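Recall that a protein's primary structure is simply its ordered list of amino acids. Everything else, from secondary elements to tertiary packing, is in principle encoded there. The following example makes that idea concrete.
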Amino acid sequence: MTARRKTVRRTGSTAHRGAARAGSKRAAAPRPSPAWARCSDEQLLDRRLDRLGLRIEGTPLQGCIAQLQRELDRRRLAFRPHFWLSDEWFTPDGVPGAAIPFYLAHRRLAKLEKKIMLEVEGGTRRWCMQLLRHETGHAICNAYRLHRRRQWQQVFGNASKPYPDSYQPKPGSRRFVLHLDYWYAQSHPAEDFAETFAVWLTPGSQWRERYEGWPALKKLQYVDELMHEIAGQRPPNRSRRRVQPLGALPTTLRDHYRRKRARYGREFPDFYVRDLRRLFAAGREHADQETAAAFLRRVGPVLRTLVAQWTGQYEYTIDQVLKEMIARSREMGLRVRRPKGRTMLELAVLLTIQTMSFLQRGHYQVAL
């Protein structure tokens, strides 16, 4: 199985003026819906990114950024990251701010993202906050140049280590926190810090209790000490530079998604597809039946608990496999065709086999 990475870090380029001033106490009035919002998908795909005319103000993103700022206030951190719209989530090297994907700034674009990529990364408030906290971890590291500290390097590793094209996570490892999907903290030392910071910042995370007995707890304790040390201090790096802002991207949505799908395309073994087709059906004669994806989402919590009891694995681990099964079932247009009790039992067996497969044989690769 292949799963796409959740965040991209980029090397800085030409400086740009006009950093987004989002998250003010007083929300801006919503802007009138642009003409392209009424276009068909085919027409919209021919639109250039730099001509979408989007901004953060007046969108739900503004409220999320305001919440993030309140969380930083409660930790007495003087740092305030700046945000701008671009083609995806990323924090440029050396920049104390982060880019947010354009589709989160308009409902019509989020709908197109969902249709083409099968999910909207950051599309719920909870998910958006998770990603904002993660990117803030990168940004605060850049702002205070934390990765240059010897102890930081002893705890997390060398931040200048090249990013691999993919990584093979160890789902059973307790050396890393669990925040974003796909055990993302394991991908790189910089991501390890960003994920650890995000867990530390999240209100009500109860990280001391949750990670008791885990080697990852020492990382959280170090972040806690580090943040107390810089609390109230203005960062030495206060640049408001933006890298690849949306207004500087002349590519069309069609080309953007062509590259994105090629980069993050999922690959499934033939036996995986065969098993799903054996359990479900794709013919028109079953068009009135519940979709396999909807069925899997509905019974997913029960399946996770059952398989966790059988295998002794974390439900989080099992959920990653379940998400892949849901995505693949949606892509193939599968529907339930057998009695649901029997189908659920067979799904539990399949989910168990798939979970143990990538845990024991190491076939699970995550694309970066």
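The longest helix spans residues 340-361. Residues 50 and 247 are 4 Å apart (CA to CA).
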